[in-house]
């Protein structure tokens, strides 16, 4: 079971605020947005409030936009097609920025011959994951794709891990989670009884958390042999 961003695909080239500006432009052209800097300020407040919710509840990106616009007096719902259009602009800006290390497809092909594979991602736009996997030609290797925007809970909540385990049809103790975050991936997976492999990247930000993964690797190239030792 894999994390998505900074694990299977690399997202360090993503221009978050540039993409937010593109989404804002769609709303502005539709006549339902304040000036960008005001919009960005309130959007970040809304995002922080939602992410601070108890039990790691997740809301979709569309919901985030709707809540932001309501603070400026725009009464829009999540079903408003203008919000969907703005979300799609953000979605494809993200997808277009993602890239994959060249050895990953072959590694997945090898693993797929021996194991069931799944992706579990913290993303408020669930469609990003299957679209990206299809773009790189690796979606066929995954039996299950789970994103927090669909489940309603973010990692490290046990809910999203249990959802993935149930969909995959495996028990926690026989499943391994691979991810780059000690907090979201390793801690969350261990809470439900899964084994864990921490992908310790050089660019990884420091996390103030005391949790010990079962194995640590510096590259996904090491994963096939590492799994044999678990």
How do you describe this structure in short?
This protein is mainly alpha-helical. It has helices at residues 16-29, 36-51, 61-70, 81-97, 104-112, 128-135, 148-151, 158-168, 182-191, 223-227, and strands spanning 118-121, 144-147, 176-179, 195-199, 215-217.
Defining key terms:
two-stranded parallel sheet; three-stranded parallel β-sheet; Rossmann fold; 230 residues; 2 domains; 10 helices
Describe the structure.
The protein is mainly alpha-helical. Helices cover 45% and strands 9% of the residues. It has ten helices and five strands. A three-stranded parallel β-sheet has the order 3-4-5. The chain is elongated and about 55 Å long. The model has no long low-confidence stretch (mean pLDDT 96).
List the topology elements.
Layout: H1 16-29, H2 36-51, H3 61-70, H4 81-97, H5 104-112, E1 118-121, H6 128-135, E2 144-147, H7 148-151, H8 158-168, E3 176-179, H9 182-191, E4 195-199, E5 215-217, H10 223-227
Parallel strand pairs: 1-2, 3-4, 4-5
Helix pairs in contact: 1-4, 2-3, 3-4
Strand order of the largest sheet: 3-4-5
Question: CATH superfamily membership of the largest domain, which one?
Answer: HAD superfamily/HAD-like
Overall number of domains: 2
Based on the structure given, which CATH architecture of the largest domain is correct? 3-Layer(aba) Sandwich
Class by helix and strand content? mainly alpha
CATH-defined fold name of the largest domain: Rossmann fold
Strand content: 5-15%
Helix content: 40-55%
Just give the CATH class of the largest domain: Alpha Beta
- Termini separation comes to 14 Å
| Count of helical stretches | 10
Number of strands: 5
CA radius of gyration: 18 Å
Mean pLDDT: 96
Major β-sheet, in short? 3 strands, parallel
Note poorly predicted spans: none
Global outline: elongated
Secondary-structure element series: HHHHHEHEHHEHEEH
């Amino acid at each position: 079971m894999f994390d998505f961003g900074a694990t299977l695909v690399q997202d360090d080239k993503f221009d978050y605020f540039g993409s937010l500006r593109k989404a804002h432009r769609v709303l502005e052209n539709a006549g339902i947005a304040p000036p960008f800097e005001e919009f960005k300020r309130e959007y970040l407040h809304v995002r922080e409030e939602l992410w601070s919710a108890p039990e790691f509840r997740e809301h979709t990106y569309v919901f985030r936009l709707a809540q932001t616009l309501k603070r400026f007096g725009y009464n829009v719902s999540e079903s408003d097609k203008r919000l969907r259009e703005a979300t799609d602009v953000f979605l494809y800006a993200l997808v277009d920025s993602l890239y994959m290390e060249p050895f990953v497809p072959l590694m997945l092909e090898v693993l797929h011959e021996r194991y069931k594979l799944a992706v579990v991602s913290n993303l408020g736009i669930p469609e990003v994951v299957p679209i990206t996997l299809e773009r790189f030609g690796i979606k066929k290797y995954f039996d299950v794709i789970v994103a927090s925007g669909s489940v309603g809970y973010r990692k490290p909540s046990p809910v999203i891990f249990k959802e993935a385990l149930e969909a995959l049809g495996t028990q926690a103790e026989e499943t391994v989670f691979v991810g780059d975050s000690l907090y979201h991936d390793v801690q969350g997976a261990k809470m439900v009884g899964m084994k864990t492999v921490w992908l310790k990247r050089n660019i990884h930000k420091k996390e103030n958390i005391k949790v010990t993964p079962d194995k640590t690797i510096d590259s996904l190239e090491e994963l096939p042999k590492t799994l044999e030792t678990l």
